[in-house]
Amino acid sequence: MKVIIKHRGRGRIRVQMAQPRMTLEQADLLACYLQRLPQVIRASVHERTRCAIVEYQGSQAEILRAFSQFSYQMDGPHPPVSSSRALNRTYEEKLVGMAAAKAVSVLFFPAHLRIAYTVWKAIPHLLRGLRCLLRGQMVVEVLDALSIGISLLRGDFATASSVRFLLGLGELLEEWSHKKSVSDLAQCMSLNIDQVWLRTPQGEVLMPLSQIQTGDQVCVRLGSLIPLDGVITEGEVMVNQASLTGESIPVSKRTGMTVYAGTVVEEGECVLQVSGQSGSSRYDKIVAMIEQSESLKSTAESRAANLADRLVPYTLAGSLLTYLLTRNVSCALKLAMPLAVLSAMREASGFHVTVKGGKYLETVAQADTVVFDKTGTLTHACPVVAEVIPFGGQNEADMLRLAACLEEHFPHSMANAVVQAARERGLSHEEMHSEVEYIVAHGIVSEVNSQRVIIGSAHFVFEDEHCTIPEGEQERYDSLLDQYSHLYLAIGGVLSAVVCISDPLRPEAGAVIRQLRGLGIQRAVMLTGDSERTAAAIAAEVGVDEYHAEILPADKASFVEAERAKGHTVIMIGDGINDSPALSKANVGIAISDGAAIAREIADITIAADDLNELVSLRRLASRLTGRIHSNYRFVIGFNSSLIALGALGILPPATSATLHNLSTLGVSLRSMTNLLELK
User: What is the pLDDT, as a whole number, of residue 409?
Assistant: First the structure.
């Protein structure tokens, strides 16, 4: 590729491609190529001007050499399928076209043609409002149609044209924003795996992911993302499945077991036989579910469930009463609801709660079911050592010291928990052992004081290594608590200690659920991909009404959808990628602030990561907001009705009525801006 240098500076260069035009696909290809160069910090490509702006570190000559080596036909990483460049181009053109049409009609159309154009463009809004009225729906579209229709009847065509233009502009921007969010979400969730190692009779071959077929064998090594759903045919690995199941601890996978795209190999390597091509994995289905449910939210919930729709009848009635009284359509009804909602959203931020729209506060107030993810939501998602249980007369501190000495060589989440526990207790663990042998997905073998020492899973210690439980301690072994994961330490073939690992429950979790029940929540449910044993223990401790264990993201979303179909208003609270489909299916999705970026993007509300008590504050705030809005409307309508009655009886002159009306507007507005709760 040939380029023309347009501007250069320290660590930044802008070049123009020496070609007559650049397509959207070419711009995506070049941007993808530049962003993957190791020396490039940021790169953007603008197809209209055929320019690329690159921020880099290192030599400028290397960047120019990279441009010269680039070709649109070259093999290499492909741009994401869900690139938003074409989407942006489409809506930019629509926006420019709409603004240009407005300008042309105002500047160049004669008066009679401008009137005809305004009436023609107003017809869809009028018909939409009329259809809503015929169906008995008093919604925002009725107000839109009335504002345009009344302006036309009064001969105020400029106002009708402006209202119609602003309504159309708002709809366009809303549609653009939603589609851009979904597109960016899909791109963010893409695995960004372009090539995989395919096993062939001739050896391993690097192949594009798009060419991998069902039944092919793919090699996956330590630290790699699993690119496709499949079944392990060779090897043993420890897989971090948190992105799909929310399990806080890696899971052992052996020959014949299924692994899923988007999970990470933390230990070992394996060969898997592909069971689904790119685009058909569980991970891809998560993206599809989110896109579908977000689309449904934008087209259905944002209109049918919007608080403004429910208040339209009150707004019309209040406006009519005020007009009869003062011949002025401005009144407290126009200010009460938006001021109260905006004030509540501001107040929520004081409790470390971010609300993306007033309608979600109304839904929180109406909710009767709350659904919790376990890992990272009810628990801290960080394994810790809960207890060290010595056997055979061993000392607890010595056993923890020995376990940390072995585990520090092979850091994974459970090993890190052991090492951290020893550090917190001030137990130094200098090298006491000889060479360490690590057996993937099983454990560690070493030698201390001429004795064989092993630490690992029960399968490894008792079945593979044939270790025994000290005489007379079988009952103590059988009483180990089920809610913990266990590491077994054996010395000389005899069990010496069991290290109990837990994902600690948030201390406030149980109290929060009890307080939510006191605020009207009828059911609290826990969903988790973790084991039945762990889930049952956590559910009993935290006090939920029901729980479901060992479920995948699709199952969480299906549960939420089923609850809504039964007529329940559902709040879903989660923090991970695996929770995203359920968050988008719920009436209101609430994300933890330090959770996955995707969960925060999908969620309607975000709460602080360090305290679930924000949920209680949110429920109280939402309930009081709803009460305040209804109270404001009852007062305004009642007060204005009284003024009309007093005026009709000749008790109050019109000027006094108008003054009292305006004072009531000021009073309601000031009340709407006061806090609903006391700040902490």
Answer: 72
Identify the CA nearest to 523 among candidates 483, 564, 557: 564
Model confidence over 386-416: pLDDT tens digits?
Answer: 999 999 999 999 999 988 888 887 667 788 8
Strand partners, 572: 371, 589
Residues in CB range of 426: below 8 A, 6 or more apart: none
> pLDDT digit string (tens) for 116-145?
988 998 898 889 888 888 887 766 677 678
Ramachandran category for residue 653: left, alpha or beta (phi over 0 → left; psi -120 to 50 → alpha): beta
Q: Are 640 and 325 in contact (CB under 8 A)?
A: yes
- By three-state DSSP, how is residue 124 classified? helix
Q: Per-residue pLDDT tens for 347-362?
A: 888 888 888 877 888 8
- E strands of 209-304, at which residues? 217-220, 230-240, 251-253, 258-259, 264-274
Give the Å distances, CA to CA, from 71 to 17, 27, 76, 410, 534. Answer: 12, 12, 10, 43, 54
Q: What is the pLDDT of residue 329?
A: 45
Q: Any idea which residue has 């988790």 for tokens?
A: 528
Residue 54 near residue 12 (C-beta atoms within 8 A): yes
Strand 523-527 versus strand 546-548 pairing type? parallel
Q: How does 109-122 read in b/e, with b if 16+ C-beta sit within 10 Å? A: eeeeebbebbeebb
> Which residue do the tokens 């689309």 mark?
295
CB 306 within 8 A of CB 193: no
Closest to 501 measured CA to CA, from 487, 514, 490: 487
| Token couple for 629 | 């809005």
